[in-house]
Amino acid sequence: MNMKKRVIILAIIFSIITSALIYLYLNSVDVPAVSVAVNKTEVVVAANTIPENVIITGEMLTVMSLPTDGVHGDAARTVEEVVGFLSKNEIIAGEQVLKSRVATDLTSSSLAYRIPEGMRAMTLSSNEISGVAGFIAVGDKVDILVSYTDMEALGQGLQITTQFQNVEVVAKGPAVSGATGGQSDTGVSSSLTLLVTPDDAQKLVYAAASGSINMTLRNPVDTKILELPGYGMDAFEGLEEEVE
User: What transmembrane ranges does the database entry give (predicted)?
Assistant: First the structure.
């Protein structure tokens, strides 16, 4: 074996020995683990997919601790912020529950979200006489009087009845135009939207089609329902005899 080959073999041997020694050294050294502190925030997420337009319950939600940088600014932090309210859109399982996608602020939500379950919103035409000169405001309660003019065709004359009592006003239409094309000085709305049952909605449509409607404004603390008889020509029977 010549000198050149011996040098190469020795170099390879020393290289293997050096590598082994380095490997053994590195394994004997304790390298401290590097830990990075991550700030986390608790956020409400959907435990399962929440359909659109349903009442959100606690079973639909869970609270997770997520990195703060990944938490949406509009996400609910506690379940109490969204439980009991309507979902405006579908919320996918695992998705952060955004308050903007839940009808939490009913005053700023569309009218549909403010209608209690089992009730309906219905709009009636209004003018200065039937609408109490524009003094009816949203949230007020009114009684509805119906003048059934079609009763005259049956020979019974005009009949007036207080058909609905303590009905809530949930919205007002735009003010009617005055003679100059601007809004009326009285602020009288062209329509009033009422909260009624489905059955009362049918009766109101019939009343509007069969006669004319007037409203009376109630005191907020007066919620008593009165038994009122209808009023018509028969109320004047015997009046002449009494006068005589």
Answer: 7-26
169 membership: H or E segment, kind and range = strand 159-172
Helix (H) or strand (E) holding 42, with range, is strand 40-46
Residue 91 has pLDDT above 90, yes or no: yes
129 Cβ neighbours under 8 A, 6+ residues apart: 214
pLDDT tens for 11-20 read: 777 778 877 7
Point out which residues pair with 43 in neighbouring strands. 64
Q: Tell me how far apart the alpha carbons of residues 51 and 172 are, in angstroms, rounded to a whole number.
A: 31
CB atoms within 10 A of CB 221: 6
Q: CA nearest 196: which of 143, 130, 132, 129?
A: 143
CA separation for the pair 62, 79 (Å, rounded) = 8
**Any idea which residue has 């009636």 for tokens?**
124
